[in-house]
Here is the input.
Amino acid sequence: MAESIKSRYQPSYPNKYQGDPNNIVCRSSWERVFCRWCDLNENIIAWGSEEIRIKYYDPVRKKVRTYFPDFIIKVKENTGQIKKYIIEIKPKKQTRPPKPQARATKSYINEVYTYATNEAKWKAAEEFCKDHMIEFKIITEDELGIK
Here is the structure.
């Protein structure tokens, strides 16, 4: 599981970063891995961290809230095409609905609420992306090459 230790990332190529390159906050070790990949990958033309705001309805708290996706990247694809992506970094376990349990433990209820909130965020992100010709991707430990 990704360590949720906050750290700051200092880019090697600050000109690629969209935002303040002296204030890149990584909320997990996995986000740090992704920051490094964006920074050092020559196909990444530009990138930012938590630079986009998307309104969504939170079904758990029953109110409209603001979602800040982890990253936005501008990529030169192998075809030469330039594409934008909004990226969310999440453990694979949080991208699937929790398996029903015999007992509704606090842990299980938390998993259900977390999934419901994430699902609402991701639906709002997909709508936002469709309207702005951006692609939404959820990246897990599998894509990051983390075991």
Summary: The two ends are 9 Å apart (CA to CA).
